[in-house]
Amino acid sequence: MKPLWGIRIFCAVVEQKSFVSAARQLGTSPSSATRALQALEEELGAMLLARSSKQVELTMAGETYYPAARQMLDLQQQAEDELSQQAGAPRGLLRFSAPETLGRELLPAVLGRLADTHPGLRFEVLYSDSTLEPIRDKLDFSIRGAFPASSELIGHPLWHYRRHLYASPDYVARHGAPQSPSDLPQHRVVIHSAPRVLKAWNFVSSDETVSLNLNAWHRSNSGNGVLDAVRAGMGIARLGDWLAEPLAARGELVRLCPDFRIVSSHGDDPQMHAVFASRSMPRKARLLLDALRQEARTRGFGLHPPR
Question: Tell me, what DSSP letter sits at residue 257?
Answer without folding.
Answer: S
